[in-house]
Structures are given as C-alpha cells and as structure tokens.
Design a protein that fits this description.
Elements: E1 9-11, E2 32-41, H1 47-54, E3 59-66, E4 71-77, H2 83-91, E5 96-101
Antiparallel strand pairs: 1-2, 2-4, 2-5, 3-4
C-alpha cells in the first residue's frame, strides 16, 4: 500500500433556511468528518461484493467505480476508526491497488 496524501475533510450537509411564514422547522445537523479512499482498480468481476464485505461495519456514504479511469472512490463518514486499517483491508482485495486516503 502506498499512501500518497493524508487529508481529513469536514462534510457539512446543506442548511435549511427558517421560513416562519411557511411553518418550516430549522434542521441543523452537526458536522461529520469524512475520509475519502481512492485506489487503482485492475479487475472488476465481483469487486463490489468483496468491497462490501470489507466495509460492512463502517458508515459508507459513497462508493463509485470508474471503469474508464480504473479508479475506485469510497467515502466513509464519522470518526473513531483507523483509516490506515481500512486502507490495509482494501489493499488486500484482489483487483485493488495503491489505496490512498485522506
């Protein structure tokens, strides 16, 4: 596994405006940090099933696979997990190479 860059980003859902005349309720959600994993992909048969098994306990918000660019992108929300451990789990999946996160 090669770690190219480490970066943690904060994800903030869109805020809803308070419009008293329409009776809407303001919903403010707390910010949740997200970790974005990217990897080069060389084989896709059964790939998503293998990834789903490895990421089962995590709060996966996005899973995208680009067949043209041969890349995989996974966004996991929350804190309290070891991103290096998740990257190592992904790195063991057949067909996934060079996992990075940040």
């Amino acid at each position: 596994m090669t770690v190219l860059a480490t970066r943690t980003t904060d994800s903030r859902p869109p805020e809803r405006s308070d419009q008293a005349d329409e009776g809407n309720v303001v919903l403010e959600l707390p910010e949740r940090p997200v970790t974005v994993f990217t990897a080069q992909v060389v084989e896709t048969r059964g790939l998503l099933a293998r990834i789903a098994v490895q990421l089962n306990p995590y709060d996966v918000r996005e899973l995208s696979l680009s067949l043209e660019e041969c890349t995989l992108r996974i966004v996991v929300a929350g804190e309290g997990f070891d991103a290096g451990r998740v990257a190592a789990r992904l790195d063991k999946i057949i067909g996934v190479l060079d996992v990075t996160y940040g």
